[in-house]
Design a protein that fits this description.
By secondary structure, this protein is an all-alpha fold. It is built from twelve helices and two strands, in the order H-H-H-H-H-H-H-E-H-H-H-H-E-H.
Length: 248
């Protein structure tokens, strides 16, 4: 059985945790109808939480308002947010362009701060499925070695050509989320002649490890205590082999 929801959205298409949760629900329902067991594999806590617990039912934002706010410098947007939603401004990193803009557009469009919407949840399937969760928390040195090896494998399997093709497209804004994918900026510098292969590789590996560290911290602390956790590298390897080989 092949992976679902992997590389299924073009970089020019807007996408979100809510959109992924909708698509994931449909894929899970399809597997159940076919008498198959869906195995959810991933490391993005926001997406998993949205699927299981639901998402704040924020109304659709007027496109003109969204475009205006997202064109603002992040410093200006954060200053406005500090006046209109101080709680969100204090909580968010002032340099986080996406989240600052989102919080500002929500309070502007709805008259309610983001926290008020986040207190409400809708659409989660956590109470409708029999969930058997396993959180993998292997030793960090072991994990980081695999992150480095994974990045090397991506480069060997065409990542440079993939980024070259992405940067050549004129239908994708330079501010689109796909440009923030790990490796794009680093390989872009390589293609521009600003870095050599070794420098770009080391930079992308470092960014990968930093992201893995944030994921590790989230999964160590945020999921319910009832979720089973393991630090056994043998288990991690076996599950990795299973999801990358037997499900293809």
């Amino acid at each position: 059985m092949p992976h679902r929801l992997f590389g299924h959205v073009d970089g020019a298409q807007p996408y979100s945790a809510a959109a992924w949760a909708r698509d994931a629900q449909a894929a899970i329902a399809d597997a159940h109808r076919g008498g198959r067991l869906p195995i959810l594999v991933g490391g993005t806590g926001l997406y998993l939480r949205t699927l299981l617990d639901g998402i704040a039912p924020v109304p659709a934002i007027d496109p003109a308002l969204r475009q205006h706010i997202r064109a603002l410098p992040v410093a200006a947007a954060h200053a406005m947010l500090a006046r209109e939603d101080p709680q969100a401004a204090q909580r968010l990193n002032p340099a986080d362009t996406t989240r600052v803009a989102r919080a500002l557009e929500v309070v502007r469009a709805t008259g309610r701060p983001m926290a008020a919407w986040q207190a409400e949840r809708a659409g989660g399937i956590g109470g409708e499925v029999a969930l058997k969760a396993l959180v993998l928390l292997p030793p960090r040195p072991w994990l980081f070695e695999r992150c480095d090896a994974r990045l090397q494998a991506m480069l060997a399997q065409g990542a440079i050509d993939e980024v070259r093709a992405l940067l050549a497209r004129d239908d994708i804004s330079s501010s689109a989320p796909v440009h923030r994918a790990i490796g794009v900026a680093q390989i872009g510098r390589l293609l521009d002649g600003k870095d050599d292969v070794m420098t770009a590789t080391l930079a992308a590996q470092r960014a990968t490890r930093q992201y893995a560290k944030r994921q590790y911290t989230w999964f160590k602390n945020q999921p319910p205590e009832t979720w089973q956790r393991t630090d056994e590298t043998e288990t991690c390897v076996l599950l990795d082999i299973f999801v990358t080989k037997f499900l293809q």
